[in-house]
From TrEMBL:
Record gene name: ahpD
Subunit structure: Homotrimer.
Transmembrane segments: none
Record bears the keyword Oxidoreductase: yes
E.C. numbers: 1.11.1.28
Disulfide bond residue pairs: 131-134
One Pfam entry name: CMD
Superkingdom, taxonomy of origin: Bacteria
Protein name: Alkyl hydroperoxide reductase AhpD
Record flagged with keyword Metal-binding: no
InterPro entries: AhpD (IPR004674), AhpD-like (IPR029032), AhpD_core (IPR004675), CMD-like (IPR003779)
Reaction equations catalysed: N(6)-[(R)-dihydrolipoyl]-L-lysyl-[lipoyl-carrier protein] + a hydroperoxide = N(6)-[(R)-lipoyl]-L-lysyl-[lipoyl-carrier protein] + an alcohol + H2O
Active site, renumbered: 131, 134
UniProt record similarity statement: Belongs to the AhpD family.
């Protein structure tokens, strides 16, 4: 199971995805930990069993145990936060924004990796899950830490491609049944 296996499974009508997958991972300017943490968190967030199976092993081999766990933690935390904060934002009643969330987020205190890496992974997952408030919040933290727009865009490019590959391959599997 690998990136190459995933690329070879992409149907010809979606060959742009194959090319994009190769470039966002193979030609990324992100440091290895940021890259593979983003890939793993996005593979989890994509909800695609095939994408996760194909990318997890490689991510596990390229990440330290702490970074591997932190990337999974970012995906889990954002699965919660993206629903909560997106819903609060979408409701017409602004009073919900004044209420205490009351949700545990202990991982934020010590994610096990540099805060910038964890924020980047959280931003990428938020892109997949479509939470504008979370995207804005993570982007502000990253920019405040001196992270450039190109790096931030690299993370959400990975999110877009991983999500699209998951949708494509999962739909092909369903259609083949």
């Amino acid at each position: 199971m690998s990136l190459d296996a995933l690329k070879s499974a992409i149907p010809e009508y979606a060959k742009d995805l194959r090319l994009n997958l190769g470039s966002v991972i193979g030609d990324s300017g992100l440091p290895q930990q940021q890259l593979w943490g983003t890939v793993l968190a996005c593979a989890i967030a994509s909800r695609s069993p095939r994408v996760l199976r194909e990318l997890e092993e490689e991510a596990n081999a390229k990440l330290s145990p702490e970074a591997y766990t932190a990337a999974k933690s970012a995906a889990a935390k954002m699965a919660l936060n993206n629903v909560f904060f997106r819903t609060r934002h979408l409701l017409s009643d602004p009073a919900y924004g004044t209420l205490r969330a009351g949700l545990r987020m202990n991982v934020l205190g010590d994610p096990g990796v540099a805060k910038v890496d964890f924020e980047l992974w959280s931003l990428a997952v938020s892109a997949i899950n479509g939470c504008g408030d979370c995207l804005d919040s993570h982007e502000r933290v990253l920019r405040g830490a001196g992270v450039g727009r190109e790096t931030i865009q690299e993370a959400f490019k990975i999110a877009a491609v991983v999500q699209a590959v998951g949708v494509t391959l999962d739909s092909e599997e369903i259609l083949a049944e």
